[in-house]
# Entry
Amino acid sequence: MKKQTITPTRSITSEIEALLNKQIVMEGKSSAAYLSMASWCDTQGYNVSSDFLYKHSEEERKHMLKLFRYVNAAGGHALQPEISGIKHTHTHQQRDRELTVSRQQKCRSCSSPTAPLA
# Structure
């Protein structure tokens, strides 16, 4: 592997930048998925669930923005993820809760490989 030089204008390696951009994709997709579920819950009268999911969507978006700012400030280039394949209709609230938990665990496990490299 080619060794990279860290300079005053670039304080992260390309490898770290790629990992952080991968995490940005995860956070962006999670935010969009939660927003879609929140909207569906809202239209079905599941107010408590919709409130939770709206907040969760915003939390994931904030995570994404923090990563964006960090990557750019460190001399990298944060990339806006393409968000596609978001489900807009849902049929079962319990299954959606399980998907929410599963998605959150996936986001956490995706970010953990970056910790030892930083």
